[in-house]
Amino acid sequence: MLYQKTVNREVIIDGVGLHSGKNVQMRILPGLPNSGIQFKRIDITNNNIVIPSVFNVTNATLCTTISNEHGVKISTIEHLMAALFGLGIDNALIEIDNSEIPILDGSSKIFIEKIKSSGIKESNIPIKIISINKKISIENDNKFISIEPSKTNLLIDFEIKYKNSLIGTQRNLVDVYNSNLSDIYESRTFCLYEDVKKLQSMGFALGGSLDNAIVVKDNEVLNNSGLRNEKEFVNHKILDCIGDLFLSGYKVVGKIVCSQGGHKLTNDLLRKVYEDKSNFSLHEIKEKTLSNTLIDKVSLRSIA
Predict the structure, then answer these.
(1) pLDDT tens profile 122-167
(2) Residues 32, 37: Cα–Cα separation, whole Å
(3) Ordered domains of the chain (ranges, CATH)
(4) Other C-beta atoms within 10 Å of 103: how many?
(5) pTM of the prediction?
(6) Which of 67, 110, 252, 299 could join 58 via S-S bond, C-beta 3.0 to 4.6 A?
(7) Which positions are annotated as active-site residues?
(8) How do residues 239-251 score in pLDDT, each as one tens digit?
C-alpha cells in the first residue's frame, strides 16, 4: 500500500529569495496524516497560515504566489512543491520568516537532498490521487495546454520556443511516476541576459545571480559550469509544471501536453478541471502490491 508520508525530522534551509533578494530561513516540519502541505509565516503573528491550493494562487508572473484570505502571501513555491511531490511528501508544515521561498541553486536539487537527509516517515494512512476523466484544453494566442485521461501515469509532454538561437525549440516527454527524473529536478531556472535589467526594474530577480539561474547571452551560457543536461531549459519548465500541479492537493493521473506554457497556464488548467466534478475522480489506494508505476495494478476506491 502507498501510505502518506512526511519528513522524519525538521529540515532547515537558508537562502535568498530570487525576486525579493531578501535572506530567508525556512523549516520543514513533520505533518500529521491528511493535514496536507501548509505554510506558516512566522514573521507574522496572526492569520499566518497559507495553504498551497489551486484557488489560493494570486499571482503567477514569473513564479507561483499563494495568499490566504488575509492577504498573507508566499511566493516562488514551485521548486519546493516539485521536490515534495517527487519525494512523495503528502504532509508537512513549512515555517518561513519571509514572503519568498529561498531559490537555492534555481532547481529542486538541494531541497530534495536536504529532505532525503532528514529521512522520510511513513504513516498508516493511504494516499489519495486525482484522475482525469475527460480531455480539457486551454489555448491562448501561441500558448496551449491540455490534460486528458491516462490509465496509471502522469505524463508531461512540454515544448518551449524561444527566438534565442541557443535555446530555440526544445521538447521533452516524461513519465513522472516511472522514470528517473534526476535531469528534471536538477534543471535550473533561466533567463536571457538582455532581460535582466528590465526584470530588476520591475522588482523581479533582485536576488538572481549565476549561482541560482542560467543566464543566456546570444548563443552562450554565461555560467562557468555550463548546462547540467542537454534539455535543461525545457526540463526546468517541466519541473515548474510538476510543482504547480501539486497545488491540486493530490498526486495527478493524466497526460499533460503543453506548448510555451508557464505557471499561469497550468493554474488556469487546474481551475478549469475543478469547475466540473465530472472532469475528475478522487481515489484512495487500497491494495498492497505495486509495480514501478504509482498505481499500476492497484485497485482504487472512489471517494468523490
Answers:
(1) 999 999 999 999 999 999 989 999 999 998 899 999 999 999 999 9
(2) 10
(3) 3-126 (3.30.230.20), 129-302 (3.30.1700.10)
(4) 27
(5) 0.93
(6) 67
(7) 263
(8) 999 999 999 999 9
